[in-house]
Amino acid sequence: MPPYGDKTMTNNDNGLIIFLNGAGVALAYGLLGISLWLSTEVPLATKGYWGMGIVLLTLSLINVVKYRFENQSNADRIRKIEEAKNERILEDFVNDDKV
Question: What is the model's pTM?
Answer without folding.
Answer: 0.51
